Amino acid sequence: MTEFFNQVSRRKFLLTAGASASVVFLKGCLGNPPEAGGSGGAQAQGNNSAATPVANIPPEQAPETTKISLGYIPIVEAAPLIIALEKGFFREFGMTEVNLAKQASWGSARDNIEIGSAGGGIDGGQWQMPMPHLISEGLITKGNAKIPMYVLCQLNTQGNGIAIAGKHQGKGLELDLKAKNGKTVFDQLKGTSTPFTAAFTFAKVNQEFWIRYWLAAGGINPDKEVKLIPVPAAQTVANMKTGTMDAFSTGDPWPYRIVKDKIGFLAMLTGQMWAYHPEEYFAIKGEWVDKHPKATKALLKGIMKAQQWLDDFANRDEASTILAGRNYFNLPAEILKNPFQGKYEMGDGRTIDDKALAAYYWKDGTKGTSTSYPYKSHDLWFITESVRWGFLPKDYLADGAKKAKELIDRVNKENIWKEAATELKVAAADIPTTTSRGVEEFFDGKKFDPENPEAYLNSLQIKSA
Ligand code: CA
Questions:
Q1: Are residues 237 and 125 in the same domain?
Q2: In the chain, how many domains are there?
Q3: Is 302 inside a domain boundary?
Q4: Which residues partner with 126 through β-bridges?
Q5: Are 380 and 391 within 8 A, CB to CB?
Q6: Which residue has the higher pLDDT, 29 or 394?
Q7: Ligand 1 centre and the CA of 157: distance in Å?
Q8: Distance 158 CA to ligand 1 centre (A)
Q9: CATH of the domain at 107
């Protein structure tokens, strides 16, 4: 427990920070046009107003409640939630009182799920993986309380990167660290008082996995040759400016801001490391879902519509403008527009112009597999990678990964995704018939076969386990 987070004072700070961010957001929303804000009440509901009647909901699909509070972090992963609210897709399915609460950090999102909306916290929202599993297991909660969470869909793929401080330009810190002797940078700093310092936004989840995978594939042991620290995304630009951080991993717009602000460059995009990798997820407290199965499906249908809308590249400039708004990311829309089209200036002369490397929400770009579907094979990769680095004990993978699979079955509710997709009349071809996306391949040639996670672990030279 202590290794995850510890002092009561820090927890208090996170709670306060989370609450004040939410208040700022609520205030901002009052500035919406009257037709969007309805009576102008204090709810942050965008085009979701309860004042507008909702038509054409079949009585058997009418939600048990119209209200939920969902947390989000201002990165492109949150786009389906924000678009579903702003384009009225939540409202279309009867969820007229969705409150989106901006979270100051992943730590405050975790704290706010513990509190729940009744206490001023949240019922669910956007999560890095495997946060819902760790919360369900009581591994990152106060007093190790087990709070069952249900994973309902994946929010996005790609749209993340690893940014490097400008002082390391031209030293081979690219996708393949072995190609241009990038390892020299780490070797030179290893014995000094300032080892190479890399940051992620929350320990033992996605962003830490991306940075660890990249380093280890380049022959660098992240536990021995690098200092790894958690830093909230919003602080990363400042930390890199002051020189206290050599690298960090998070979602757009933060890596790209580093480039735009001329503070550093992008080593690579996560989509280059693992094409159409699982990124962040939508999950709600199990208790809420069990009590409101129809409202859960209504939310999912709203998110699915938003994901389909977002994958139409003709909508992406509008999406950039909505997300960049002061209620949400509060930055110039220009920073989002190019990356949303797969165009990146890497900041060291390299450029990328490849739609296959943009963020996707509904389908995996050129591959055509489902982005939205919560494949259990991806949950298993996150659990396997957790075992690789000693974040979870090896017994999760013993006996054919029995313990991992039991946990995944408790948390992953792919059946609810299927029911919602059927109600939305999604084409049969877009509803996966198996819970495995199959064998996954990484840029360094390593393969993860969900049928044999041990073989993947055995193939990796650098690991803690
Ligand atoms: Ca992310």
A1: no
A2: 2
A3: yes
A4: 282
A5: no
A6: 394
A7: 9
A8: 8
A9: 3.40.190.10
How close is the Cα of 35 to the center of ligand 1, in Å? 34
Whether 413 maps to a domain, the answer reads no
Report how far residue 21's alpha carbon sits from residue 103's, in angstroms, rounded to the nearest whole number: 6
Cα(164)–Cα(161) distance, rounded to whole angstroms?
10
User: Is residue 358 in a domain?
Assistant: no
Q: Could you list which residues have their CB under 5 Å from ion ligand 1?
A: 160, 251
* Segment 266-321, tens digit of pLDDT: 999 999 999 999 999 999 999 999 999 999 999 999 999 999 999 999 999 999 99
* CA 73 / ligand 1 centre spacing (Å): 9
Distance 128 CA to ligand 1 centre (A): 6
pTM for the predicted model, two decimal places: 0.90
Handedness of CA 429, 431, 432, 437 (dihedral sign): positive
Q: How far is the CA of 51 from the centre of ligand 1 (A)?
A: 35
Assess contact for 214 and 266: CB atoms under 8 A.
no
User: pLDDT for 97-130, tens place per residue?
Assistant: 999 999 999 999 999 999 999 999 999 999 999 9
Asked if residue 93 is part of any domain, the answer here is yes
Question: What's the gap in Å between 231 CA and the centre of ligand 1?
Answer: 13
Task: State yes or no: pLDDT of 236 exceeds 50.
Answer: yes
319 and 239 co-located in one domain? no
Residues forming a β-bridge with 360: 157
| Comparison of pLDDT for 255 and 141, the residue scoring more | 141
pLDDT, tens only, 256-266 = 889 989 999 99
Report the candidate in 137, 116, 105 with the shortest Cα–Cα distance to residue 11. 105
